[in-house]
Design goal:
heterodimer; A: about 375 residues; alpha/beta; globular; B: about 425 residues; two-stranded antiparallel sheet; 15 helices; about 10% strand; Pyruvate dehydrogenase E1 component subunit alpha (chain B); Pyrv_DH_E1_asu_subgrp-y (chain B); thiamine pyrophosphate (chain B)
Chain lengths: ~375, ~425
């Protein structure tokens, strides 16, 4: 994380970036730290004040200040007509958001977690994603569906699924997943301004984490492009792709690997659909080894798609089989130790990188 | 609460029609009684005529309604409901709907049309009765049985026919098809295949109208939305969710139930615990009206009130139109489960024949004028077929078009630039 800030300031790429707080303090433009929650809140605030057509809708977004306090203060500022507390009717209010978007309003629909979006998935896919195509361009749907995705801590099977792969397989949707505060601000602003339906997958455990941001990020017109991944850390030995919370894990794994002389390149996907295949492939052609990291179920997951893409385009460059790290192929257990086993950990990434670099014996395939 | 009580009143009698309606709603089981009137018009039932059509095949039978001719006579006695121009407009619209749908059936059996085609024959009174009262900026949301809604709203017959043939000149360039008629210009918002899917979208469009007036301060924005859906949809969760939210936020929407008693082969009475759909309105705090959907003039009267309510900002209304589809659910449906006597009964109440009779008996139009309209519409439909036949099929490059409004959604190509910027992007097979 500190490494990213340094890259931004100096605009150069460093091979070996040592996280050193003392070095950072000398660069004043990176001094401000904001949490992901503040980043999202400020992005929503700025977009709502810039465009009166933007409005929020969801359970507890108003008087409760947001189930995870992302929409704090917005009800007081913009009033109940623009920050709507809905009844517990995902299918209904998502459809209402889509209908409003048909007419040029820009709803931001919050799902308390993306697990609840399954009750509304008909509208996300059939009424939102497919409409521009079915109407041959007459009806575009400038809507954003946002909320926490993936596992939190101890919330059980029905509150822990990662939906990146499901939504990313559907044409007509754009699927974004930010990692740090800069990603959160830039991608949410881009999503709200985008004329197409965007599924914005946040992560509950990241909401409270602080990251340094530059002044440019705090500017109200700051926006990140949709469809471009970011190389968080440059390396030459192995490429690790990740999104959302696992980018942090991948960066920590990269630091551990560095001690063993393996320099990992960490790619923060940012955009799951469209996937930045060119960045991924360029990186694999450089390092010749790939590890994909995700939190969701392994079958038909994001890693599977990345692996297929790399095999299609850069097969000759691969020196080792692509390693996929994903959540365990089970519904999320409740017990804390089992939950830890069901979600990728930093050690898993480190082990996989070593296997890919032929520094250790491959594990036998488990069930 | 005042609204709930006044709304409850609406469920037992319509606002301005004959106040001596004797509908009995106390116990839902009463409908098995052949003299019950729940499916009848809001007028008094004529017992003599109802006994002729006593269908007792299943429990909870469909009971015949009053004879249309008798009602017409009593209706025309006080004042005429429509002027000559309006009458001819209604007639023309219904004939267009009927002729178009009949032509669709022909074209389907000739192989020019394919996939799922759901025809609207018999239900024209509902579409014409409601949609002809709308302005261009009002919107209509429908289901897969949407050809006639699109036509009534003003989408040209040529565009609809081309769309059905899958040609590039169709209203959605051939990308939508029979079930997905969209028109930005005429504010037809689809065209949804899933039942119940259009209702929240319609509620959202009504929400936008209210938002524009109150938040964006477009003071004269009084656009109304009509949501058309069937009896089967009224058991779907989304229907209830939207009744709740529309009444809660007082949205300018009219929920129009086209109760044709059948959801493919499932009779409404077999599927619904309380078949009186209009009663579900007051449960959510809005008026629930039941109207004879085979009579375009009655539908029009009810529609005027409901649309007027919405425009004045008084909130939503639930209107149940008792109607019937003369053909099967779709052109692939053999339609074996419906009783021929039931079909014959409703065929005798054909809305077009009824309106024709009304116009002639009240000297609003002559036979010759009506025949001229018939001929004109035949020509319009023939022209639409010719146009569709001669139109080209979509080019291969159209496959990848319009997935996104912002085409950068296709991502970045191997050369590092956005794929959509590559002029060769939409050529050849889809390779994304």
């Amino acid at each position: 994380m500190l490494a990213i800030a340094r890259q931004r300031i100096l605009g150069q790429s460093f091979q070996n970036i040592r996280p050193a707080v003392s070095v950072l303090r000398s660069y004043s433009s990176a001094a401000k730290q904001i949490t992901v929650r503040e980043a999202l809140n400020s992005a929503l605030d700025e977009e709502m004040s810039a465009d009166p057509k933007v409005f929020l809708m969801g359970e507890e977004v108003g008087e409760y200040q947001g189930a995870y306090k992302i929409t704090k203060g917005l009800l007081e500022k913009y009033g109940p007509e623009r920050v709507l507390d809905t009844p517990i009717t995902e299918a209904g209010f998502t459809g209402i958001g889509v209908g409003a978007a048909y007419y040029g309003l820009k709803p931001v629909v919050e799902f308390m977690t993306f697990n609840f979006s399954m009750q509304a998935i008909d509208h996300i896919i059939n009424s939102a994603a497919k409409s521009n195509y079915m109407s041959a361009g007459q009806i575009s749907v400038p809507i954003v569906f946002r909320g926490p995705n993936g596992a939190a801590a101890g919330v059980g099977a029905q509150h822990s699924q990662c939906y990146a792969a499901w939504y990313a397989s559907c044409p007509g949707l754009k699927v974004l997943s930010p990692y740090n505060s800069e990603d959160a601000r830039g991608l949410l602003k881009a999503a709200i301004r985008d004329p197409d339906p965007v599924v914005f997958l946040e992560n509950e455990l990241l909401y409270g984490e602080s990251f340094p941001v530059s002044d440019e990020v705090l500017d109200s017109s700051f926006c990140l492009p949709i469809g471009k991944a970011k190389i968080e850390r440059e390396g030459k030995d192995v490429t690790i792709t990740a999104f959302s919370k696992l980018v942090g894990y991948a960066l920590k794994a990269a630091e551990i690997l560095e001690k063993d002389g393996i320099y990992a390149e960490v790619i923060n996907l940012r955009s799951i659909r469209p996937l930045d295949r060119s960045t991924i492939n360029a990186s694999v052609r450089k390092t010749n080894r790939l590890i994909t990291v995700e939190e969701g179920f392994p079958q038909h997951g994001v890693g599977a798609e990345i692996c297929a893409s790399v095999v299609e385009e850069s097969f000759a460059y691969l020196d080792a089989p692509v390693e996929r790290i994903a959540g365990a192929d089970v519904p999320m257990p409740y017990a804390a130790n089992l939950e830890r086993l069901a979600v990728p950990q930093i050690e898993d990434i480190v082990r996989a990188a070593k296997r890919a670099c032929y520094r250790s014996v491959p594990l036998a395939a488990t069930a | 609460m005042a609204t709930a009580f006044s709304a409850a009143k609406f469920s037992t009698q319509p606002f301005h029609l004959n106040p001596t309606s004797t509908t009995s709603h106390d116990s839902p089981l009463v409908f098995a009684n052949p003299t019950s009137q729940f499916l009848g018009s809001t007028r008094k039932l004529h017992l003599t005529s109802s006994s002729k059509f006593n269908l007792t095949r299943r429990s909870g039978t469909v009971v015949a309604v009053s004879d249309v001719v008798k009602q017409k006579k009593s209706k025309s006695a006080p004042t005429l409901l429509i002027t000559k121009e309006e009458g001819l407009e209604l007639y023309e619209d219904m004939i267009l709907g009927r002729a178009f749908e009949d032509m669709c059936a022909q074209m389907y059996y000739r192989g020019k049309m394919f996939g799922f085609v759901h025809l609207y024959n018999g239900q024209e009174a509902v579409s014409t009765g409601f949609i002809k009262l709308l302005k261009q900026q009002d919107s209509v949301v429908s289901t897969y049985r949407d050809h006639v809604h699109a036509l009534s709203k003003g989408v040209p017959a040529r565009a609809v026919m081309s769309e059905l043939f899958g040609k590039t000149t169709g209203c959605c360039r051939g990308q939508g098809g029979s079930m997905h008629m969209f028109s930005r210009e005429h504010n037809v918002l689809g065209g949804f295949a899933f039942i119940g899917e259009g209702i929240p979208v319609a509620t959202g469009a009504a929400f936008t109208s209210k938002y524009k007036r109150e938040v964006l301060k477009e003071a004269d924005c009084d656009h109304v939305t009509l949501a058309f859906f069937g009896d089967g949809t009224c058991n779907n969760g989304q229907f209830f969710e939207c009744l709740n939210m529309a009444a809660l936020w007082k949205l300018p929407i009219v929920f129009v139930v086209e109760n044709n008693l059948w959801a493919i082969g499932m009779s409404h009475l077999r599927a619904t615990s309380d078949p009186q759909i209009y009663k579900k309105g007051p449960a959510f705090g809005m008026p629930g009206i039941h109207v004879d959907g085979m009579d375009v003039l009655k539908v029009r009267e009810v529609a005027k009130e409901a649309i007027g309510r919405a425009r004045r900002g008084e909130g939503p209304t639930l209107v149940e139109c008792e109607t019937y589809r003369f053909r099967g659910h779709s052109l692939a449906d053999p339609d074996e489960l419906r009783d021929p006597a039931e079909k014959a009964h409703y065929a005798a109440r054909d809305p077009i024949t009824a309106l024709k009779k009304y116009l002639i008996e009240n000297s609003l139009a002559s036979e010759a004028e009506l025949k001229a309209i018939d001929k004109k519409i035949d020509e319009v439909v023939e022209d639409a077929v010719e146009f569709a036949d001669e139109s080209p099929v979509p080019a291969r490059s159209q496959l990848l078009e319009n997935v996104f409004a912002d085409p950068k959604g296709f991502g970045i190509g191997p050369d590092g630039r956005y794929r959509c910027e590559d002029p060769k992007f939409t050529e050849g097979t889809a390779h994304v």
